[in-house]
Design brief:
The chain has 77 residues and is an alpha+beta fold. It is built from two helices and four strands, in the order βαββαβ.
């Protein structure tokens, strides 16, 4: 399994609907609205790296109100 954290910037006034829209996506372990430079942090866990790309591009970035994503792949050290 491959895990990642996706930091999301939402359009003004849309953070709540973005968080609700992400919550039901398969592979999403958790999603939280946050304060600071990002509006939401999403934890995902999927089968491989390609699945992360597919999840972000075809699911998360297609949610109305998502303006930018930054993906941080989880590593073991």
């Amino acid at each position: 399994m491959v895990g990642a954290y996706i930091l999301i910037t939402a359009e003004p006034g849309k953070a709540g609907s973005v968080v609700r829209g992400i919550a039901g996506i398969p592979g999403v372990k958790s999603v939280s609205a946050v304060t600071g430079p990002y509006d939401a942090i999403v934890e995902v866990e999927v089968s491989d790296f390609n699945a992360i790309g597919t999840l972000i591009v075809s699911k998360i970035q297609n949610i109305d109100g998502v303006s930018r994503t930054l993906t941080c792949i989880r590593v073991e050290i």
